[in-house]
Amino acid sequence: MSSAALEVIARKAPGFRADIGLVLGSGMGEFADQVLEQIAFPYADLPGFEQSGVSGHAGRLVVGRLGKVRVAVLQGRIHYYERGDAAAMKVPIETLQGLGCRTLILTNAAGSLMPEVGPGGLMMLSDHINCVQASPLFGIATNKRFVDMAGAYDAGLRRQLKAQADRLGIDLHEGVYAWLAGPQFETPAEIRALRVLGIDAVGMSTVPDVILARYFSMKVLAVSAITNMGAGMSDEQLSHEHTIAQMSVAAEKLTRLLIAFLDSQS
Ligand code: HPA
Fold this sequence. Notes:
Rossmann fold, binds hypoxanthine
């Protein structure tokens, strides 16, 4: 249960309620600097919140306002590959729900399987394939565990985000994301196989968080920032440093897009 974390938050931000939660992936952490009237909580102060050991993930919950929308931002996430626990984000996401969030926006860094979309591109998720076949719902004993994943990526929110992208002249692609466990990157053979399966982008996060968000009845909007082509599709040497270095172009666009989207919500 996340009530202990909610108590800590209530002590420093009494009565705070949020409309929208955000989970910021690799390279998007600076987005949290935009939050107005912000109050920040290091994960170390929040029971059940685990600090990611991955560079580029600050490990803070930032609450406040963006435009007229009250937001609760998870600046950094722990990944399945850090401990092999698909439910590592259960308490943080339940806490966002407990703060009132009915919508969760997630960002991640991903490799592109779309030949026409390279580093710096943005892809909104329309669906996913859980290649890991692990679930954050393992061990839950009630029928609530049987979550319907059709329509997980909310069609209305996707339309609104696309409209904002068009207005700003930002290319926003849409496609299917595959979750692979990592932390190693894929082999070229895996990427070729995923292309046959109809995958458009590949990454090591987000899917467990989306399952949790749906479990907690939140609407989901998710965007991949493309940092590289899938293994074997270009001459790039893949590494975490390469991912972080390539994030800056996409992160700048994604920050502008999300701010415009949040502004349009008020
Ligand atoms: N594969 C998996 N995860 C990633 C990639 C990739 O190519 N790029 C950024 N995150």
